[in-house]
Structure formats: C-alpha cells, structure tokens
Write a structure and sequence with these properties.
alpha/beta, 11 strands, TIM Barrel
Length: about 290
C-alpha cells in the first residue's frame, strides 16, 4: 500500500470512513467487523470515525468508535501502526437530526468519552467536527490545543472548514494543525480552495464522501460518464477510478471512502495501484 503523511505519521494513501457501518442501513455487526478487517487486510492504516456516527439518541453515541475498537481488538494481525481519527462537536440527538456543540467544555468531555470507547490513552487524531455558529471558532480550536498540550490527543485536525478557518486554526494551534476533512467528490468540488491551501501548507486533506455519499456512490458511473469510460478502459470500477483521480490531485489528499461490505473496502484500497494517464486525468477534471 502506498503511503502519505498526516503530521509525522505515515498512513495508507486510502483510508476507511466508518460512517456507513453505524448509521441508517448499517450492516449487522459481524459484517461491519469483517469490512474493517478487509481494509486492514488490504494494508489500510487510517480509519476515520466520529462520536456522532450512529442512528440517533443518547444510547447510540459512539457506536462507530466502539465498533472500530472491537474490530481492532479482534483482528489477527498487527494493529500497532493503525491511526484512528475521530471527531467531536457534531451531535445526533435523534434520527435525522444534526446539531453542533463547539464549546470547549463539551469538546473536552467528548474527547474523554471517545478515549474510553476507543480504549486508548491518547487519540491518534482528534478533529473538530463542524463549526458551531454559537461559539467563536478560535475557542473551539483552543480546546484541541489544550487537549494536545495535555497529551489527550497526539494530533489535531478540523473538519468542514473554510479557508479562513484553516488559517485561524493553524494560528491557534501554533502551527500544529495536521489535517482538514471536507466534503469533496466529482459532485462536490467547492472545497477545492481548501484543498489547494492544504497543499500549500503541507496539511493532509481528507475528502469525506469522496464517492458522492452512501446513497449515491453506486450511481457514480452513470452520473459521470467519463469516470465510467476510464473504468471500462482499465477493467475496474468507476469508484476506484474516482479515488485514483483524487490521489493524483495532490500528495496531501487522502480519501476516506466509507464501505459497508468487505468487497467494496477491498476495491477502494486497490485504487492506490491504479495509474491514470495525463489525458485520462484531464478528462476526469473536466467532468467534475
């Protein structure tokens, strides 16, 4: 598996997004664990999650974190190099409802709860999930700074951030911002300015929903004909082509596609070995 870097840690160039394993339509637990194990078998070393990845309700909080901890504990191979990235500040109080709480007190409490669910002394990468309009952004990011200083987290990142927020977070963290996780896909290219800034600053850019989201990933080829055309030429899936196209965009890009089946997890991981020509990349750039 080809690697890229988050902070000082080398990780696989393709990660696994845990969301589809824990929200509506979640697979049974055995298949979910098997999906995570399939990614590990394919040499994936970055797993992204969040305390808000669940169906909804207090009893569900942290479902995906607990699932990932279980899968890592039951894996037969070495997991010492796995980077688990989780997030706090986005809440799902009931099915279909999302809210934010970016207050420093809440983020510290959320981090402590994530530490317990993941069963670790320090979270590898902790990310502020989504800006809270009711809380100054610098205060929210300041909580991550304090968690870094306290040794509760090893690295800090932000998600759903604007260009200005990336620069502000970098300042608040004293140059220790290591990642930005924004939505980015052929259907959603409006985070390109943030991607370009991350490239300039040498900060990892983690596209979430890189295949268009849970409900649309299977339709990617029919929605974007050039991706299907390139896929047919290589005898691979348009989803694999999409991830290879993203990897070619910048060395800081690390897509985190979600999977709910071992087969799709394996297919995503194999995108690192797909070489696209300059003409193919140009056609895909034009299709977005």
């Amino acid at each position: 598996m080809k690697t890229r870097t988050i902070g000082t840690q080398s990780v696989s160039a393709i990660g696994l997004g845990g969301m589809p394993l824990s929200i509506e339509g979640r697979p049974d637990r055995a298949r979910a664990v098997a999906t995570i194990h399939a990614s590990l078998d394919a040499a994936v070393t970055l797993i992204d999650t969040a305390d808000a990845y669940h169906i909804g309700g207090e009893d569900e909080v942290g479902h995906n974190e607990s699932l990932i901890a279980e899968a890592l504990a039951s894996y037969a191979g070495d997991t010492s190099d796995i980077l688990v990235a989780t997030k706090g500040g986005h809440l799902r109080p009931e099915p279909g409802t999302w809210t934010q709480d970016g207050s420093p007190d809440y983020l510290v409490t959320a981090c402590e709860a994530s530490l317990k669910r993941l069963g670790v002394e320090a979270i590898g990468l902790y990310q502020f999930h989504r800006p809270d309009p009711a809380v100054p952004y610098a205060e929210s990011v300041g909580a991550l700074r304090d968690l870094l200083d306290a040794g509760k987290i090893r690295m800090a990142g932000i998600s759903n951030a604007s260009v200005d927020q990336i620069r502000q977070a970098q300042e608040v963290l004293g140059g220790r911002l290591v990642s930005v996780q924004n939505q980015y896909s052929p259907a959603f290219l409006s985070s390109r300015a943030e991607l370009d800034l991350c490239d300039e600053l040498g900060i990892a850019f983690l596209p979430w929903s890189p295949l268009g989201g849970i409900s649309k990933a299977s339709d990617l080829g029919s929605s974007y004909a050039p991706f299907q055309k390139v896929a047919d030429a290589h005898g691979v899936s348009p989803q694999r082509v999409t991830l290879a196209w993203m990897l070619a965009t910048s060395p800081v890009v690390i897509p985190i596609p979600g999977s709910s089946r071992p087969e799709t997890a394996q297919d995503s991981a194999e995108a690192v070995d797909l070489e696209l020509s300059a003409d193919e990349l140009a056609s895909l750039d034009a299709a977005g």
